[in-house]
């Protein structure tokens, strides 16, 4: 048994988020694009591979 003590209203960052779309659907962000979101230029400079299409669509 492991007893873990946490703060009830602690904000956890970074975290993966889902972005609501105009049609009511949700887009789940890829793991490399965690909240709070970096601007695309910064994300692109840090990535070793191409930015996910989902990351680009979420910012439209």
**Spans with pLDDT under 50 lasting ≥5 residues?**
none
Number of helices: 2
Which series of helices and strands comes N to C? Answer: EEHH
Q: For the CA atoms, what is the radius of gyration?
A: 15 Å
Give a topology summary.
Layout: E1 18-20, E2 26-28, H1 40-46, H2 53-58
Explain what the structure shows.
With 60 residues, the chain is α+β, with helices and mostly antiparallel strands. It has a domain at 18-58. It is built from 2 helices and 2 strands, in the order ββαα. A two-stranded antiparallel ribbon has the order 1-2. The chain is extended. 3% of the residues are buried. The model has no long low-confidence stretch (mean pLDDT 84).
In short:
This protein is an alpha+beta fold and 60 residues long. It is 22% helix and 10% strand. The termini are far apart.
Task: List key phrases describing it.
single chain, 60 residues, alpha+beta, 2 helices, extended
């Amino acid at each position: 048994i492991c007893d873990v003590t946490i703060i009830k209203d602690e904000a956890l960052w970074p975290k993966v988020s889902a972005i609501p779309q105009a049609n009511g659907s949700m887009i789940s962000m890829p793991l490399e694009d965690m909240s709070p979101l970096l601007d695309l230029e910064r994300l692109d400079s840090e990535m070793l591979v191409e930015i996910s299409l989902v990351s680009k669509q979420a910012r439209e």
